[in-house]
Amino acid sequence: MTDLPRTPPRFSATFTPAINAEIRRAAASGIYDIRGGGTKRHLPHFDDLLFLGASISRYPLEGYREKCATDVWLGTRFAKKPIHLEIPVTIAGMSFGALSGPAKEALGRGASAAGTSTTTGDGGMTEEERGHSKTLVYQYLPSRYGMNPDDLRRCDAIEVVVGQGAKPGGGGMLLGQKISDRVANMRNLPKGIDQRSACRHPDWTGPDDLEIKIMELREITDWEKPIYVKVGGARPYYDTALAVKAGADVVVLDGMQGGTAATQDVFIEHVGMPILACIPQAVKALQDLGMHRKVQLIVSGGIRTGADVAKAMALGADAVAIGTAALIALGDNDPKWEEEYQKLGTTADAYDDWHEGRDPAGITTQDPELFKRFDPVLGGRRLKNYLKVMTLEAQTIARACGKNHLHNLEPEDLCSLTIEAAAMAGVPLAGTNWIPGRNGGF
Amino acid sequence: MQTFDLGKEGLRALNSSLHALKGQTNMTSWEVVNPKGAHAIAAGVDAPVDITVRGSTGYYCAGMNKQATIRIKGSAGPGVAENMMSGTVIIDGNASQYAGATGRGGLLVIKGNASSRCGVSMKGIDIVVHGSIGHMSAFMAQSGNLVVLGDAGDALGDSLYEARLFVRGSVKSLGADCIEKEMRPEHYAILEDLLKRGEADHLAKPSEFKRYGSARKLYNFNIDNASSY
Question: What domains, with CATH codes, occur in chain A?
Fold first, then answer.
């Protein structure tokens, strides 16, 4: 009897150990899981696209010899003072409150050294970021924390935030443990209480109101500043078209891989679309309106490498934005803090409890003892290096495709590795001319 | 007195002229005629000047005002004095939705009624409404004072933070976490001052008001309050 083989334990594909652990955690705590970052599930992404490179039908450019330009103009539609960036990789909006002051300073240092912009967040503009950012985009958010006309006039562009990829349709959340005296003062709220940022703007609803709101912001700033409209990746064709109709100079489109300082895990993982599926729809909306390249498109959500930059631009984006990747470049989730991550019940590269304010790397915290660990000068240098590497990588690919500017990359330079990516990106499956849903269907 | 014909000269010219005013200007008195419901009239002014708009305005009149005293001799569209920083805005008629939204300072006086969401997310502004206010007023209001001589609609002060709400008439319903609170001497003093500055001291007495504020039960998340969120 004992020699009979036993059926080995078999885990359910539905009730996985991770799912079961979450059920137990919910049952014990009575609260949903809150965390930072973006979706962690596997999604069709830029990794599912490849560049074809030049061959007989098109010739490449010589690396290090023949120029491949990387600059981008943003806000050329209406603004008197459009922005000119040396590279098309920008830093996405992240709030002071979510991040420490030194971390905001480092983002400004790194971005400015690399020739690009940074963006404020849900908490107002700090001197650290204004002082160290050559080009600073000022977010106009539903909470209006810290909003004032002086900062509107000293920014370089205004970003009206309708939504973000991590939580399209959701508001912000900064839990009490991160509300220091300074954060509380900037937000005009008592110290230590949970700060809920509204999911809708307090004084406009819908695209017709948005048009008037944008006009008001232009009037207040004497039509000088480019005005961006940021949306989460939900209905990118219509959202892009409506943003253009409302008068946006730039549309910022954030896929569900985009991070957040804190929100419900269920929101991060189950609402929104991957950026790969969003870009072609937004580009089509711009093309249908005759506004592609006239209203610029910045895309974000899971941009990690120069290859991702090049692929996003080949699909029609004018620029990209990075958030999570920028924090990692600064030192977030670095294995050198592994011992402390273990004490927090996590591990390097998986730490996402940014809302708790106990970040061992001293970046997503308001604890002065923790953020002393972070050197903004060194952090800025690391970010500059990373941005330069991304740009070089994107140039390398563009030259191989025979392009003398990153903006000249095109969908025809790409093929897809999977049917899903082919359908979402509108790029043929490798070795075929098949785009599911087009060319007569299946 | 500088008289500006908005119908002839246009909004951009008006706001450009007003933005050019500095602290020591001699052009301290302005009159805007033919507003015809235009949006963003006198938005973004930052000078201690008096501006009278003769007629009704569209959205966001006096938006983000600093220092100026702006009188609207008519009614105001949505978002009047939104995010006001300082100064005074006085409306002879009624105000549409979101009057004084997110205002951080200064005084907004509405001599008629205000529609829904009056004082939404207010952050330090004082608002005096001679008439009544609509539903969801003072939603997520953070600080400042809202004084209503008439009645308040549904869900007054929903998800309120530290703003003080004073209502003389009836309140149709209170929003989540908003409760009636005791009137103490300092509150009578605040009311007396605001009624005077709000040109309403001949209409009402501080003793006629009730005070509403936050119960502070939703300040930190608790699953047992889930039905309130």
Answer: 34-404 (3.20.20.70), 410-442 (no CATH)
